[in-house]
Specification:
Elements: H1 3-7, E1 13-14, E2 18-22, H2 28-35, H3 38-41, H4 52-67, E3 74-78, E4 83-94, E5 99-106, H5 115-130, E6 135-141, H6 145-153, E7 157-168, E8 171-181
Parallel strand pairs: 5-6
Antiparallel strand pairs: 1-2, 2-3, 3-4, 4-5, 6-8, 7-8
């Protein structure tokens, strides 16, 4: 399997409360809303967005990734209000090794509601069933308790701490490493999730 097989036409995924789809130009203001919050950017690799231009630049990068069939995020759309409330993606994918690493970010308005876990479980399912993955991993700063909780609730196993594993914003950070293997994946019962649709 090649990266273009998935990212050449990113599929729409659906859960009980969410639609995971391509990021679109119309998402600009929704994206700026959460990217401009310091509590959101505190534990990610990018800086707080100061203006719409910062968000527009990132949006342009994502749209270009889609055009070139490269790894790019899914927008997380909340069905109840049709707002784009975050993104989730495989930040790296190594088809030859059947492995990938996940990442996600979500508006603080939707924290502590199980929404990020819901999106994470769906992407894990998709990775094992459609991308021929045998290992999915994710990392977070050791201080990011909320992100670690998401990984645990999604069925991932804590593997250890990568000491000073990343230098971001002038500081070396210790990272918690989590993973789930295909044989550990518990199949979600039929009917619990809507069918995926090609978009």
């Amino acid at each position: 399997m090649e990266i273009e097989d998935i990212y050449g036409d990113l599929p729409i995924l659906e859960t009980e409360r969410l639609i995971l789809r391509k990021v679109e130009s119309k998402d600009l203001e929704d994206m700026f809303y959460y990217c401009s919050k310091k509590e959101v950017s505190k534990y990610v690799t990018w800086d707080t967005h100061q203006t719409l231009s910062d968000t527009k630049e990132f949006l342009g990068f994502v749209l270009n990734q889609y055009l070139n069939g490269k790894v790019a995020p899914w927008a997380i759309e909340y069905k109840e209000n049709r707002k784009m409330i975050g993104t989730i993606d495989f930040v790296t994918w190594q088809p030859k090794h059947n492995s990938a690493e996940m990442g996600y970010v979500i508006s603080p308005d939707y924290w502590d509601k199980g929404i990020t876990t819901e999106a994470t479980k769906e992407l894990i399912r998709f990775g094992f069933e459609k991308m021929d993955l045998v290992r999915i991993q994710a990392r977070c700063f050791t201080e990011n308790i909320g992100s670690a909780r998401v990984m645990e609730k999604a069925g991932m196993t804590f593997e250890g701490i990568l000491r000073k594993g990343m230098k971001i914003k002038g500081k070396h950070w210790d990272l918690k490493m989590y993973s789930i293997l295909k044989e550990e994946f518990v199949q979600i019962p039929a009917g619990a999730l809507e069918n995926e649709v090609k978009g």
